[in-house]
C-alpha cells in the first residue's frame, strides 16, 4: 500500500463504518464466518502480519503443498476467530494444528535474508502489476495481455472475461 | 464527496489506470456501452454536472415521470457518447430529445433558490445516510434497519439481503 501511494479506506470514519457493515453483508452472502478483528486498525497500521507473510514465503519455497492450508488457517485466525497471528508463538500454533513437517526450520528462516528477499521480490512483482491493495488477482492467458482484478467482488467480471458462468457463492464447498 | 471528507480514487494514478480497465471489463459484463469521458478528471473536479443535478431536482418536483428518462439520457451523454452536460444548451438538447413539456420553465428554475435548496436537502439526506460516494443505494424495509450499499457491484449482496436470486446482467432489458 505504501509502495503504491495508496491510503487505507478505513482511515475515513464514514468508510470505516460502511466497511464493517459491508463485511457483515458479504459474510452472509458468501457463507463465511467473517468477523472484523477487534483491533483491526491497530493491526493494519503496525505491520502485524509481516512474520506471517514471511512464514508463508518460506513455506511456499520449502513445502508448497502446505501454503494454501496455512494461508487459510491464518485467515481464519485473523478474520473469523480474532486470534493473533503476529507472534512466532501464533505461527507455531498454526504449524502444530496442520502438522507441518520441519516447522522449526521454517520458523527459524522467518528472519533470514533469503526469506526477506523472497517477500520483497513478491511485493515488487505485485507493484509491477500496478497493485494498490489486496486481494490482487492476475489473470494470465496465452496470447493475451494479463488482466488484473482488485477485490473479492470481481469474480463475476473475472468469469465473464473467461467466458464462463459465475455461479455465486459455492457454500457447499467451503 | 467533500461533505464526507472522502477523496476521489482517481487522484491516485495507479487507481485511475485500474479504474479505466475495470470500467471496460464492467461494460462488457453488463452489456453497457460505457466509455470514459476524455476529460473525466476535469469534469470530476469542476462541479460540471451541477446544473444537470439541479435540472433533475426541478424535474422530479414538477414532472417526476420524466426523471428517470432524463437521468438516463444524461448518463448516456456523459458515460457513453462523451457529450457535454454542463451547459444549459446541453440540458435543452435533452429536453428536446425527450419532448419534456414546459422545459423552458424547468430550465429557468435551475438557478432558483427553491431548486438549489431541494438539491441541498437531497445532499444532506445522503450525508445523513453516511454516503461518501455514488451510487449510494438505501434499502428500506418495514420493521428493519435501513441498509446502505455503495457501488454498482453490490447487487448480488443486495439481492441476498432481500432473499432473492441475483440473475446477473439482464442484457435483454437494457
TrEMBL record, chains A, B:
One of its GO terms (molecular function) is glutathione transferase activity. One of its GO terms (cellular component) is mitochondrion. It comes from the Eukaryota. InterPro entries: DSBA-like_thioredoxin_dom, GST_Kappa/NadH, Thioredoxin-like_sf. The keyword Transferase applies. Keywords: Transferase. Residues 4-161 form the DSBA-like thioredoxin domain. It catalyses: RX + glutathione = an S-substituted glutathione + a halide anion + H(+). One of its GO terms (biological process) is glutathione metabolic process. It is an enzyme of class 2 (transferase). Its EC number is 2.5.1.18. Pfam families: DSBA. Belongs to the GST superfamily. Kappa family. This is Glutathione S-transferase kappa 1. It comes from Acrobeloides nanus.
Amino acid at each position: 500500500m505504501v509502495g503504491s501511494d495508496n491510503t487505507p479506506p478505513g482511515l475515513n470514519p464514514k468508510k470505516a463504518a460502511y466497511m464493517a457493515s459491508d463485511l457483515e453483508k458479504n459474510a452472509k452472502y458468501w457463507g463465511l464466518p467473517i468477523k472484523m478483528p477487534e483491533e483491526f486498525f491497530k493491526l493494519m497500521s503496525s505491520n502485524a502480519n509481516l512474520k506471517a507473510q514471511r512464514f508463508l514465503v518460506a513455506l511456499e519455497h520449502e513445502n508448497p503443498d502446505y501454503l494454501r492450508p496455512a494461508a487459510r488457517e491464518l485467515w481464519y485466525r485473523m478474520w473469523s476467530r480474532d486470534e493473533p497471528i503476529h507472534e512466532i508463538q501464533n505461527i507455531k500454533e498454526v504449524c502444530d494444528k496442520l502438522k507441518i513437517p520441519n516447522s522449526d526450520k521454517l520458523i527459524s528462516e522467518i528472519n533470514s535474508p533469503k526469506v526477506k528477499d523472497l517477500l520483497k521480490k513478491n511485493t515488487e512483482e505485485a507493484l509491477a502489476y500496478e497493485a494498490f491493495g489486496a486481494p490482487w488477482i492476475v489473470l494470465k492467458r496465452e496470447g493475451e495481455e494479463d488482466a488484473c482484478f482488485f477485490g473479492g467482488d470481481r469474480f463475476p467480471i473475472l468469469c465473464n472475461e473467461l467466458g464462463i458462468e459465475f455461479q455465486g457463492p459455492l457454500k457447499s464447498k467451503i
